[in-house]
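Issue 218. Parser rejects a valid record. Input:
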Amino acid sequence: MSKSNTLLKKISRGVSVASTITASTFVHGPPVLALGLTKLIANSKKVDETNIKITNSWLGINNWLIDHVLPNTKWTITVDEKLDLSMQGRYLMICNHQSWVDTTVNQYFGVSRMPLTRFFTKWELIFIPFVGQAFKILGFPMMKRHSKAEIAKNPQLKTRDMEEARKACQQLLSQPFTLLNYLEGTRFTAEKHAAQHSPYKNLLKPKAGGLALALNILGDQIDAFVDMTIVYPDGVPGYGEFWLGDVPRIAVDLRRIDLPDWINSGNYEDDPAYREKFQQWVDQIWQEKDLRIEQMKANLQ
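Output the parser choked on:
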């Protein structure tokens, strides 16, 4: 195929994908927002269930595009035999973070296997039309990031985000859920990795506070603590590259992590000994994930 034909095919694919995603957003977004407004009057389990069905339909359109418009992307997905997933389950999930594509990968895997995935996200995303407001209505924990200078000026800012996250986690307990935490807190880049002097080859340093909070609230209520690892063996893609079909291979590994007996026996914020023990546990998880990424890369050579 000539370069011109390849370019035309890519442009056509891009236009088709963009048009479909935009149309799907305008079809699914307004009903989610309209139903969400009714929660200002009274909470309703039926409204929540309807909104989740609409959102899964919304995500289903994206998955249909992946299967039918991006057929050249080869997926390698492995699931730990100890991990028995259900649409009625309650799961806490952690994942490495490299690209905006990570969230689409998570949705591609999870939409037919697990309850709707919420994840800790930036408050600023609420200003994205339809999508940002849907995050809030659907119970995504939305965090405002404050600089050290801002916290020094107003120390209450340090705990305000935690309280908002606590409320969001507690609200999830009324339904099946998957709560995703990108422990690195930001997308991996070589520059960030070097600036952190990260001890891990493929990961940034994990931030354990949000996970500790989620486990404190949800730990005895969840069916499994899930570790998802995503590898792009041909290079980390941008969001546009993914939807243009320029990602040849994606590898995903999911496994269950057993929670230690002591996990709910302390307070991460106020107990230094517990905090150190928790951070050591997370470090062990991260070391194992770092090795797993190396193994996944080697298996895909």
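Fixed in the parser; the record now loads. The mean pLDDT is 85.
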